[in-house]
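Good morning C.,

I know you're traveling, so I'll keep this short. The sequence:
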Amino acid sequence: MSRGATRAAVLAVALALVAPACTKGDAPPPKQVVETRFLDRLSGAIKAVNDARGRLATDGNVLGAAAQALDDVDEVAVNGDRAAARKRRPAAAKAVQAAAPIARRLNDHVRAYERAVAALDAAEAPGLTREQLAALGDAVQAGRGEVTELKRYAAAVASAWPRYEKLDADQKLWVARASNGWYRTQNESAGAYVVLTERQRLATARRTFATADARRVGTARTTAATYDRVRAVLASLLP
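The tokens, ready to paste straight into the viewer:
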């Protein structure tokens, strides 16, 4: 069946008879009106899921980039290499500046995705085939699973991110001191950096963030595969 024919067949179940107000004399015959609003709502619900999910993917990328940029500075600063640290610091400072507001609003974005998945679950879908209904159910289930993982990720960010922000401040302070002759040798500079950055707490934050981020990415890939399959099943219905 062609795309147009399939759409027409699905819409046929939503035909409504609308009778105009009666007047004296011959009344015109009732008109058939095709109700397409349910498809518009379904399409809107799917778009809302995709938009919310895309925003969270961007959030994760920005946070990950900031963590990596700080780690790049740390890699050389821990050896007391002031010149290399100064070279890498601008990129780290810029990345942290971009990530800071995202870390604060991450929970809001997760809740928005959760609401979008709930709205998709509640969207009217009269006339869909069993396959199409099953696909929508799979999408909702996958979305809910991803929301659960994203809540864990947001909790990990809330736990780890203050330590990354402290690392950013520590690096800025250390570079300023190293540039102003606070440390007599590179070894002394390295030792000062190690003490300043509280290595054990930093290592804990790194593990927390890295584990949560890996789980987020893995779940995102699985969810994307489900959404791609659902999109293919519903392709004949949605614009």
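Safe travels,
E.
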